[in-house]
Amino acid sequence: MMREIPKILIVDDRLENLIALEKVLDVFDVEFVRAISGNEALVNTLVHDFALAIIDIQMPEMDGYETVELMREEEKTKLLPVIRFSYCERHRNRGCRFYPKTNCTGYPSRKSKSIS
Q1: Could you tell me which of 108, 44, 39 has the C-alpha nearest to residue 77?
Q2: Is 7-115 CATH 3.40.190.150?
């Protein structure tokens, strides 16, 4: 019997960030489904069953906060584990405070990258 490969929804309005996430997480045996907006992410949740969603907080039109709120309203995705991320510390703190059932993290800053 063939094992089903888990799907991870990755959402970011910047293609280079989606590619970077895939490269970092490529060590896991998972399938990635990309979305470049909150709306596209919501459509993807209707079509696919995801094991995890990784969503950027800072996106135009519908940000990561609103995307997660709308996902929580749907039976299919209300319990989906979500990791939200941001380049901005201010957004990380806000997200962790108001959304305790989701994980928040940030990209490495350019400063920390240049030091290492």
Answers
A1: 44
A2: no
Instruction: Go through the chain and tell me how many residues it has.
Output: 116
> What does the pLDDT look like over 70-109, one tens digit per residue?
999 999 999 999 998 876 555 445 544 444 444 444 554 4
- Among candidates 109, 90, 10, which has minimal Cα distance to 53? 10
Give 97's strand partners.
none
Query: Tens digit of pLDDT for each residue in 24-50?
Result: 999 999 999 999 999 999 999 999 999
Crossing angle of the two packed helices 64-72 and 38-47, in degrees rounded to 10 = 30
CA dist 69 → 2, 14, 35, 114 (Å): 34, 21, 17, 35
pTM beyond 0.85: the answer is: no
Task: Annotate 80-91 with b (16+ C-beta within 10 A) or e (fewer).
Answer: bebebbbeeeeb
Strands (E), the chain: 7-11, 31-35, 52-56, 82-86, 103-106
Q: Which residues are CB-neighbours of 49 under 8 A, at least 6 positions away?
A: 7, 76
